[in-house]
Every structure is written in structure tokens, then in C-alpha cells.
Amino acid sequence: MMKLLSVGALVWLFLPPVIALEIVDHDGMLMDHGDGHLMDMAGGMVMGQNTDTLPGGCDQISETKEITVHAGHKYAEKFPGRMFAFDTQEFNFKPCTKLTVHFVNEDKIRHQWMMHGLPKYLYPKGMFHLEISGPAKISGTLILPPGDKTYLVHCDIAQHMEKGMKAQLKVGKGDGDLPSIPGVTAFTHTDDYQATIPQLLASAEAQEKALALAPVVDPNAAATPAATPKQQSGFVSGTTVIGLALGLLIAPFLAKKFKDMTFAEAVAYVFEVIGSGINFIVRLISGLTKLVSNRKNKTLPEN
Questions:
Q1: I want to staple 169 with a disulfide (CB 3.0 to 4.6 A). Which of 91, 143, 237, 243 is the partner?
Q2: In angstroms, rounded to a whole number, what is the distance separating the alpha carbons of residues 17 and 32?
Q3: Which pLDDT value is given to residue 134?
Q4: DSSP code at position 20
Q5: Are residues 77 and 158 in the same domain?
Q6: Within this chain, do residues 203 and 164 fall inside the same structural domain, yes or no?
Q7: Edge to edge, what strands does the sheet with 24-25 contain?
Q8: Exposed, middle or buried: residue 182 (CB in 10 Å: 0-12, 13-18, 19+)?
């Protein structure tokens, strides 16, 4: 028995510490700044809170509801290509519902639960806003308007919505679905990992195959004085293969050059390079012509 206790004590001592995620409750620390705006110095904020004023068209509160919404990186794992998400992507309530939202942030960064499109005469800037910095919980209440409408709910931190932290809230039957809601509707713009000019990004295997097909040229071979049509055709074919091989060799360099360019910018750059090359050749020919002309003038006999 003593041996078992000793072994158990040793195992307990050498086990890695388990750090539980501590969720801080901000509800008791919020200060009322008026107009439904509550906040504290620890990074918690509620904007547009409305607990008792009925929106126009609501004779009474139809029902009282509470929901808890979790936000964090782990909730995006079921959506390929997404980085952040809520644990719920779609909500539905009756018109004129008094809704309390308990928002729980499980990441060590700032997240928001924002609802847009609310009547501005009642909700400043037309939104209801919950925000927390780091692992914490915050709550806020609003009264939903009448009618059938679909409202956007999202995190407004840069790139958080684009990376998956987006949902929709339907009042009544709603008025349709919003685009790009993870797990609910198709994405409007899917992630595209292709280069701007994909034809310049040949794979290493393709480059090796092209080089293997290129003919071996002997620099010491004597040139033939005249080529038959068949030989000319072979020369053109060989030149084309060599040109392709050289193109594949310089493709990685061009790919780096064109990586951040749009197609129009890349075309403009190519024309600029071609123009510079033509100007160089013209200047070279002009210089050679002048040089030959000067030499001929010097060799002419004087009268």
C-alpha cells in the first residue's frame, strides 16, 4: 500500500500542470455612460443596450429569451479555410422579443458580437454591440423590432468576419439568407491561392522535363554553309525548345517579380521591358553603323 502511495505521489509531482481557461465576468464591472453604452477599463463594452423601450410597431414584448454565444478559434475548425467563428451561426426569434445575449470570448484576443440594421431612432448607429478583450464574458439586452427581417451578426475586428466570425439572426421568417455564413450559405469569394500569373509558376518537375528535352549543342561543331529546308526546320525547332527551356529557367525570377502585380501591371511591365530592349538594339546598331562609316572614311585616298 505504501509503495502504491509513493508511486502515486511521484506521478502527481511530475505531471504537467493543467491550466484551465479562466473566464472573467465583466457584467458586474460595467459603468453606465448613457444611451445604452456600458463599458469598463478592462476591455468590456456594451453599446445600444435597450431593456424597456419598445420599438415602433411593438405593442408589447412577445417573449423573453436568453442565449449564450461562444467565440473563439476552436469553433472555426469545422469550417475549412476559416480562422475564427461563433459556436452558433444562425439565430431565430419572434418579432418584439426581449433578447439577452451572454457573449463569451474564449480567445486571448479581442472579439465582438455586433448586430447591424436596427432602427437608428432607438439604437445609436443602428447596432447592438458586445465586445470583450481576452477570455471573458459580457451580457447585454435589446428588444428586437417587428416584422420579418434577417440581421447581420459579426465581429468587426479587422479580418475576423472575413475569416469566419459571422452569423445571421432572423426575426420572424426573416427576409432571406445572408451570403458567406459559415455552414449556412456559400461563400461569395472563395480563397484562391493561385499566383497572379500562374503560367510563370511552372513546377520544378516541369522544368526538369523541359530541360531533358532540350538538345545538347556542341560549341565546337563547324557551321554548315547552307541549310536545306529540312535543316532550317530543325534549327527553328531546336531554337524554340531552347527558348522554352530558357523561359522555364527564368520563370522563378519572373514569378517573384510579378508576384504582387495585377495582370494589367504585369503586361505594362513586360511592354516596358520590351521597349527598353528595342531602344537598346537601335542604339547599338546606330553606334555600329557610325563606327563602320568612320573607318571607311579614314581608309579613302585623299585627292
A1: 91
A2: 40
A3: 87
A4: P
A5: yes
A6: no
A7: 24-25, 136-143, 98-105, 64-72, 85-86
A8: buried
Q: Do 37 and 167 have their domain in common?
A: yes
Are the C-beta atoms of residues 23 and 72 closer than 8 Å to each other?
Answer: no
Which helix (H) or strand (E) segment holds residue 280: the answer is helix 263-299
- The C-alpha atoms of residue 184 and residue 164 are separated, in whole angstroms, by 12
Same structural domain, 107 and 246 = no
For 274, residues 6+ apart whose C-beta sits below 8 A from its C-beta are: none
Give residue 233's pLDDT: 47
- Which tens digit of pLDDT belongs to each residue from 55-107? 999 999 999 999 999 999 999 999 988 899 999 999 999 999 999 999 999 99
Chain segment 52-67, per-residue pLDDT in tens: 999 999 999 999 999 9
Q: What tens digit of pLDDT does each residue of 6-34 get? A: 545 444 444 445 445 666 676 655 556 55
Q: Name the DSSP letter for residue 74.
A: G
Residue 42: which domain range?
22-171
128 and 202 share one domain: no
CA-angle at 168, arms to 164 and 173, nearest 5°: 155
Cβ within 8 Å of residue 200, ≥6 positions away: 251, 254, 255, 258
Instruction: State the number of CA atoms in the 13 A half-sphere of 83 facing the CB.
Output: 12
Place of cell 500569373: 197
Q: Which of 41, 27, 47 lies closest to 124 in space, CA to CA?
A: 47
Number of domains in the chain: 2
Q: At 101, which helix (H) or strand (E)?
A: strand 98-105
Can you say whether residue 212 is alpha, beta or left, with left for phi > 0 and alpha for psi between -120 and 50 degrees? alpha
If you search the block for the grid coordinates 495585377, which residue do you land on?
Answer: 262
